[in-house]
């Protein structure tokens, strides 16, 4: 039984062979299409993933910068409140009089200011802090 197997050359077998070849050709085309569309889909997924990571980093950076700006804004608001308070004090006659008496040793008519030795030590420490 070592004879070679031969195809029968009738119409039925040749039609079956043609159908089989057409089917194989269709399968190759389908595989190519699936491969191309799968590659395109994979490329889109990779690009979107990269964009997502970059956007996340950008958002994190913007959040940190925003927090920093809010802190600066809060400091400026506190400074503005302090300056407005100082301005209102400078418009107050009693406050100006108190500052003039305490810092510049000014007096009203008929008043005498006495400088005590304990105050001299305080003024020396003030002048050394100013330098």
TrEMBL record:
Highest taxon in the source lineage: Bacteria
Keyword field: Coiled coil, Membrane, Transmembrane, Transmembrane helix
Record field: transmembrane: 34-54
Bias kind Basic residues: ranges: 17-26
Location of the region described as Disordered in the Swiss-Prot/TrEMBL record: 1-26
Coiled coil start-end: 59-93
Record PANTHER family: CELL DIVISION PROTEIN DIVIC
Protein name per UniProt: Septum formation initiator family protein
């Amino acid at each position: 039984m070592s004879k070679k197997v031969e195809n029968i050359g009738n119409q039925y077998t040749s039609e079956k062979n043609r159908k089989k070849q057409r089917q194989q050709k269709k399968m190759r085309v389908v595989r190519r299409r699936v491969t191309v569309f799968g590659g395109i889909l994979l490329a889109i997924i990779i690009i979107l993933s990269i964009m997502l990571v970059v956007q996340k980093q950008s958002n994190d950076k913007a959040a940190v910068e925003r927090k920093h700006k809010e802190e600066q804004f809060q400091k400026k608001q506190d400074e503005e409140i302090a300056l407005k308070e100082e301005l209102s004090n400078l418009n107050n006659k009693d406050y100006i009089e108190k500052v003039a008496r305490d810092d510049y040793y000014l007096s009203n008519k008929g008043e005498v200011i006495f400088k005590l030795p304990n105050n001299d030590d305080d003024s020396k420490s003030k002048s050394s802090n100013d330098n």
